[in-house]
User: Which sequence fits this backbone?
């Protein structure tokens, strides 16, 4: 489903994103129920939380989009899906510096939002708005730190790829090394997700493992 377009890039939402929003609502209902009386009010409050979450994801993805554009890489669409957001780039920046800055832009935007809200959040009156701001700060920190895990294709993994590419001068070899790192980290993330009862961590861990193997098949092995 297309939601609209921002900076000339269309924003689409997969049905799995609706499932993610419902999951979030169930997870957060105990923390936010005290701000609402009836059923309709509860849904409205949780709708505000969902809006803050969606804004957080879009700020992350559009930071990637705008920095990628600076390096000549256009984006076809931003997709909100079951595991978060995803910017479909037509091509990656063609230099390690460009790749690093584009990848760092998403987490940087979330950290900036978290710090900005921490600075202005306190003067807000009203318990609900304070709780919403506090949760949005937490969500931005959580999304920034999760994406900084050095497992390709998470942002941290792309940043590591850019650094190795710069150091070795070999784009493909360094990407292969990053895929092996992602394959190593994936099962740990799945294990941690099982321990913390976080289905998202479990799925992302499995995705990292499978994506790593698929990408290794696609990236040609360096020939001697
Ligand atoms: Zn990102």
Assistant:
């Amino acid at each position: 489903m297309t939601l609209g377009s921002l900076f000339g890039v269309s924003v689409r939402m997969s049905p799995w994103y609706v499932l993610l929003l419902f999951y979030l609502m169930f997870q957060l209902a105990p923390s936010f129920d005290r701000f609402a009386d009836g059923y309709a009010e509860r849904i409205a409050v949780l709708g505000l939380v969902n809006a803050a979450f969606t804004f957080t994801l879009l700020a992350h993805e559009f930071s990637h989009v705008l920095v990628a554009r600076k390096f000549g890489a256009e984006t076809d669409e931003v997709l909100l899906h079951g595991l978060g957001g995803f910017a479909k780039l037509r091509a990656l920046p063609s230099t390690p510096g460009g790749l690093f800055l584009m990848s760092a832009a998403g987490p940087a935007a979330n950290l900036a939002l978290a710090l900005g809200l921490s600075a202005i959040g306190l003067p807000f009156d009203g318990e609900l708005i304070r709780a919403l701001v506090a949760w949005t700060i937490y969500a931005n920190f959580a999304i920034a730190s999760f994406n900084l895990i050095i497992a390709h294709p998470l942002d941290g993994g792309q940043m590591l790829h850019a650094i190795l590419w710069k150091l070795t001068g070999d784009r493909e070899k360094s990407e292969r090394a990053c895929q092996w790192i992602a394959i190593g980290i994936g099962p740990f993330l799945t294990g941690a997700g099982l321990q913390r009862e976080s289905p998202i961590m479990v799925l992302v861990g499995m995705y990292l493992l499978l994506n790593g193997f698929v990408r290794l098949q696609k990236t040609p092995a360096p020939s001697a």
